[in-house]
Amino acid sequence: MKEAGVKAWLPSLLRLALVVLLIAFVTNPGWFEPLLKPLTESNAPAIYNQGSLLTLTLLHLRTVLIATVAATIVAVALAILVTRPAGVEFLPLSRSLVNIGQTFPPVAVLALAVPAVGFGEKPTLIALFLYGLLPIFENALTGLTTLPANVVEAARGAGMTGWQRLVKVELPLSAPIILGGIRLSVVISLATATIGSTVAARTLGEVIIAGLLSNNLAFVLQGGLIVAALAVLIYDGLSAIERYTARRMGQETA
Amino acid sequence: MIEIEGITKRYDATTVVDDVSMVIEPRTIVVIVGTSGSGKTTLLRMINRLVEPTAGVIRLDGADNRSLPGYELRRSIGYAIQGHGLFPHRTVAQNIATVPVLLGWDAARIKRRVDELMTLYQLDPQAFGPRYPHELSGGQQQRVGVARALAAEPNVLLMDEPFGALDPIIRNKAQEDLLAIQKRFGTTIILVTHDMEEAVHMGDKIAVMDAGKLVQYAKPAEILAKPASAFVETLVGASEKPFRLLSLGRVRDAVETGTAEGEAIPGDASQRDALAELLWSGRPALPVKGADGKPLGRVTVGGLVKRAARPA
Amino acid sequence: MTVRFDKLGVVIAAIVAYAAFAAPFATFRANRIVPGEARSILEALPAATGSPLLAVIVAAALIALLKTPLIMRLAAGVVALAALALLIGVAGSFLTPEGNTFARISPASGFWLLIFAFTLLLADVLTRLNLSPWARIGVLVVAAAAIGMLLVSGSWNSLSILKEYANRADSFWAEASKHVTLALGSLAAAVIAGLPLGILCHRVEKLRAGVLNVLNIIQTIPSIALFGLLIAPLGWVATHVPGAASLGIRGIGTAPAFVALFLYSLLPVVANTVVGLAGVPRAANDAARGMGMTERQRLFGVEFPLAFPVILTGIRIVLVQNIGLTTIAALIGGGGFGVFVFQGVGQTAMDLVLLGAVPTVALAFPAAIILDAVIEMTSTGRREAQPA
Questions:
Q1: Which of B136, C141, C178, C207 could form a cystine bridge with C335, CB 3.0-4.6 A?
Q2: What is the pTM of this model?
Q3: Do residues C273 and C314 both lie within one domain?
Q4: What is the ipTM of this complex?
Q5: Interface contact flag, C297 B102, Cβ < 8 Å
Q6: What positions does the domain ABC transporter occupy (chain B) (predicted)?
Q7: Is C127 on the interface with A (CB under 8 A)?
């Protein structure tokens, strides 16, 4: 009994430890200096010294958050549009566009956005927004087009209007799948945002690139690990929300 | 001949098949009946060693089935399962040719055999051979599944709920086809089902399994007449018993002398069908005709009712 | 007869109207770094071609706007795109002052929007035509041939991106071959390692969750960090393992890029192999065993062919992803088209960025179309039969 208890709690404990570690690292990176020191050469600094890690982490998260919220609103709205009778003729085209869109590499999108909006956070936001759109749109489309036919039929039979069906039946039922798309999109964005620093966006990529340029492995490692830890935690958190909504719906989790 | 001796299968602490012994005569159909979880499928799968027994021996024509590597043994035994298990990426002809190809037959012989089996199963080789399984109806898929199992002319055919996925009308047809083919090739068939109706209809002998044990192994009439336990009794279905008994007999065996009015019933129809027809039409007797159409006599309600009574 | 509008056509016509009349068609710059001056269609083209181009564009937009037969829409899209492609080259030579080698002419937002609008029209037509896989590859080949001919004929040579190319034609092809080698090589390595690993994960349930979790976590590490992190171990290998350095293994350069791309590629290959094998119908597997196939015969004769389309989908994901990620290899000296992108970003020379970004997209896009077509070809006739 006891052993099973430990096993069940272990993942949560690990996550909690990761959260604590992450917060400790970005607020007091000095504590970890001895760990990273061996990775540096000729007395280079072991902790990023051209800006606060905490600020960069928060800026990184802010960039991802803004891009994801915008991408979610637009992607879900578009998915709703092409699954309504009025927009249904756009459905095949929108599918092809999503397919085509996914072949554009994030770096290319980022670089191509610079001439239009200049350097800094803006091109990063555009790239993250465009790149984030695709998984959410695709999942929303899947969710809205694979609803159990009998449930939609029943909603229609109960006399719901199109709007009521959408808000009370279709969206709640496809919520877990849409959340899955958002989760994918966030994880991609967290990693892609680091590339934004090549066009002067202030994200954790700054730390990694500084490390690459000055051949300082400690920088590369700390930047990379913070982003990876953020991604793992956010991925986990969103998965938990997804499972919760799916359970409430009585659906199996994939 | 298949001799099963003290066969047992245990997974950890659970005994799935418990010390089963039985002998299956060549050229007969034995039906293994039981509820789900009774161990009937496991018993079947131990014959071709898809499952290795924990204890006991199975001999095919005197030879221990472990004297060959499992895959070679299985190539010599036909195997058909519920939902047919056709390979979706291979055409019908390729599916049927599976075991002959494994056995290394030459192409001409394989083609001959595939064409022969498809014709036998009323599937035009030209039209159906190059099709993929998903392009066939459920009944056609099932027929291809059995044809594939028979492709290498096995002496023994194992069938696990082969008709389970079919609707009643197609199922009847499939059962009749199988009986005809068994008669033609003389294959020994061991068939697993949970449907007592099917067991009585198909089996020369019926083996009833419950919780891993062989509860009764006997001819259908005996199972109906003298169920060995309360479990067999339930499985047989008390209210169905007389009708199942009648379904075992043919009309020609119940013919009495005399004549009757109306449409004649064929001599090889089942006595159950004859009684149903009598009751439905409200007549006391029906004329019986032979396969050549000549009158054989008549069957009466009274005569059939006597035959439906518990045998002494 | 009532006039009926096509819904998508309304969108296309609106974009075309804005792009043709309000947005600049081309940008003129005195040299490669200074800000540009906008030129409209009529300013950018000689009078004899400017008005006809406008006429073609307006006509094509009208065909898109109204409900017209598919074949007509197809023709309108093709003609409009061809006219735009030809005339942007004409604009290049027209706007370049005689004998001036510093001036840069590049397509501007109006041109790109027009291209986008008519591509949308064509994409819609092609989607509605529901082409077979071979036909789709055919369309791709025709389009590639047309673009290739325009490039070879030199009619675009006066455009800024090709001037950048002319300045570094040698290094362009060297980086191109590095890019392709890195992207395809790491994919090949991932397939060679990932397939057996996937099969193993399918067979040994205990391994599955562990392996997939580790690969999942690797995917969350940002690519530039993973590239950087591999510098240290590979540098160590290069100096400490005899012979490693002569194989080209170095701390920076191609080796860490290759390893990082390989690691990223493993997850889709392994995960899709596992999913594909798990999707093989139980009954087919049981029948295969029951008919006396050996483990090897079952793997290669039944499981593998049935899982193949799913595995191929994983390979498609990896290929497209690798072509994009390889651009980042340039940051650690791994070469590839990223060299031009990052140089261009550094010099704020957007033409140079385009010289890196456009070929990357030009590789990824056909790769996706071809693999999608192959996946569809291998999946037909193999859908699992539904029991009646």
A1: C178
A2: 0.79
A3: yes
A4: 0.78
A5: yes
A6: 2-236
A7: yes
CB contact under 8 Å between B88 and C281, yes or no, is yes
By the 8 A CB rule, do C72 and C63 touch? yes
> Which chains, if any, share at least 3 CB pairs under 8 A with chain B?
C
Number of domains in chain C: 2
Q: Determine whether the interchain pair C290/B102 forms a contact, defined as Cβ–Cβ distance below 8 Å.
A: no
Residues C271 and C282 in one domain: yes
Q: Which of C167, C183, C213 is the last residue of a domain?
A: C167
Q: What are the start-end ranges of the H helices in chain B?
A: 40-47, 70-75, 92-96, 98-103, 107-120, 125-128, 138-150, 168-185, 196-202, 220-225, 230-236, 241-248, 271-281, 301-307
- Asked if B65 contacts B46 with a C-beta cutoff of 8 angstroms, the reply is no
Write out pLDDT tens, residues B145-196: 999 999 999 999 999 988 887 888 888 888 988 998 899 889 999 999 988 8
Q: Is C350–A115 a contact, with Cβ atoms under 8 angstroms apart?
A: yes
Q: Which of A39, A66, A71 is nearest to A225 (CA)?
A: A39
Residue C2, domain member (yes or no)? no
Tell me whether residue C149 is exposed, middle or buried, using C-beta atoms within 10 angstroms of its C-beta: 0 to 12, 13 to 18, 19 or more.
Answer: exposed
Secondary structure class of A66 (helix, strand, coil): helix
Q: What pLDDT, in 10s, does the model give residues C203-215?
A: 888 888 888 888 8
Chain C residues touching residue A87 (CB < 8 angstroms): 7
pLDDT band, very low/low/confident/very high, at B47 (cuts 50, 70, 90): very high
C64 & C104 share domain:
yes
Whether the Cβ atoms of residue C178 and residue C336 lie closer than 8 Å to each other: yes
Q: Are A139 and A75 in contact (CB under 8 A)?
A: no
- For residue B254, give the DSSP letter: G
Sort strands B295-300 and B29-34 into parallel, antiparallel or unpaired.
unpaired
- Nearest CA among C88, C350, C33, C160 for reference residue A113: C350
Chain A residues whose CB is inside 8 A of the C323 CB are 105
What helix, strand, coil percent values describe chain C, rounded to 5? 75, 5, 20
Question: Residues C141, C39: one domain?
Answer: yes
Among C291, C308, C380, most B C-beta atoms within 10 A, so best to mutate, is C291
Domain that holds residue C130: 7-167
Are C48 and C149 in contact, with CB atoms under 8 Å apart? no
C-alpha distance from residue A118 to each of A122, B158, C11, C310, C345 (Å): 7, 74, 28, 41, 10
Domain for residue C360, yes or no? yes
Query: Confidence class of residue C196 from pLDDT cuts 50, 70 and 90?
Result: very high
Q: Would you place residue C277 in the very low, low, confident or very high pLDDT band (cuts 50, 70, 90)?
A: very high
Subunits adjacent to chain C (3 or more Cβ pairs under 8 Å): A, B
State both tokens at B306: 């006597």
**What gap in Å lies between CA A111 and CA B310, rounded to an integer?**
90
**Which pair of tokens denotes residue B170?**
């197609």
Task: Specify if C1 maps to a domain.
Answer: no
List domains and CATH numbers for chain A. 2-248 (1.10.3720.10)
* pLDDT value of residue A247: 82
The residue in chain C having the minimum alpha-carbon distance to the alpha carbon of residue B98 is C291
End-to-end CA distance of chain C: 49
The CATH number assigned to the domain holding C308 equals 1.10.3720.10
Same domain, residue pair C259 and C370: yes
List the 7-36 stretch of C: residues with Cβ below 8 A of A: 7-8
Question: C129, C122, C136: which is closest to C9 by C-alpha?
Answer: C122
Clarify whether residues C183 and C289 are in a common domain: yes
Residues C260, C357, single domain; the answer is yes
Indicate the residue of C286, C290, C385 with minimum beta-carbon distance to B88. Answer: C385
Residue C278 is assigned to a structural domain of this protein:
yes
Same-domain pairing of C371 and C278: yes
**Residue B292 φ then ψ, to 5°:** -85, 0
Residue of A nearest to C33 (CA): A115
Among candidate residues C167, C201, C235, the one where a domain is terminated: C167
